[in-house]
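#dry-run=false #mode=assembly
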Amino acid sequence: MLSRCLRRWHLIGLLALLAAPIACQDALNPQFLAAVGQSQSSLPEPGSSVVLLFVNETVWIAEVEFNMVPRTTIPEDWILGMASESYTPLVYECGLTQLTITGGTVYVVDNGQISPEAVGFVPPSPLDEGVEFVCGAVIKIFVYPYVDDSGNFRWEISTETVLD
Amino acid sequence: MIRRYIGLETAAAILGIAIALGGCNLASQSLNPQFMEVLGTPFAPIAPGTAPFVLIRNINMTDQRVRFSFEWIPAGTLQSATFGFNVSAGLDGGVIVSCPVSQITLGSLDNPTTPGALVIFDDNTRQEVPPLGKKLREGIDYFCGDVVIFAAVRDSSTVGGYSTIYGVIDGSSQGTEFAGANTFELAEREIGELISSGIGSFEQAFITP
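#status=ok
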């Protein structure tokens, strides 16, 4: 008897819940519940993200130039400056369809002179959503030094996607 | 698993009846993302949640490019760090900062009258957006694991036609199971490995001297 009563009670509640989204769409958006701004209702619905974890492994200041193609708007060029031996975790809402590393510079200081040196790139680029990354992924973008065949220091950018 | 299902079903029933009896306001106070798992496991997290970060996001809801500048006090220091994004219309950009983060604001922590957003028009003329005028404090306005959002919006009530708003997403009620990648847990692991190998946080580099 008690069990039947509970089931009926659940059914009434669940039916009410299923009907609720029609009337209470804003209220049912869970991400807004903790909003504290006075205009919280006008904030867009937040979503999941992609993290771009930039890593400068060189002992010099470095820049990475990249292009992002969002699903809903026009492509966007970005330049990120990084301190020596540091990481920068940038976050973009999912909807990024393509990420292209377009260039990089390492600012080498030699005898007080700053010498900008171009950075090479290790494929793949561009990185495509659904191929090299998906929503929720962490994409690592490394700037690192290496020694070429002539024994000179050079710099390179490579990427790695982390999903688990 | 069965117990978990029964718990969710009961919660659903309670909520449904609450909505029916109390209307949308009551529903908005009692819902949380964990409950939404009844309707399906989320694909990926929105907030850092259990990962020891605060995500600071800038959203440009205007039809012009906006330069955001925000300050926070990084872990282990009493000085503030400044960072910013140049965000096109309709886009957003964010950065993860490590806990504890005692204060965050759009603009300047020292001077609340400093604007934290600048509208950049197509002809490259610029217009300051009125300051947010609010310091957000950990433990009061947000907690570790939350998302702090600063957005630029059109606002006909201001002289320039733009203003900034803020909001916080509660990371603690997000749940811990996701159908896809647990983004911030992955970021925590990767950042931990970087720190172990001697790579430092960008936060130290952006501390205001």
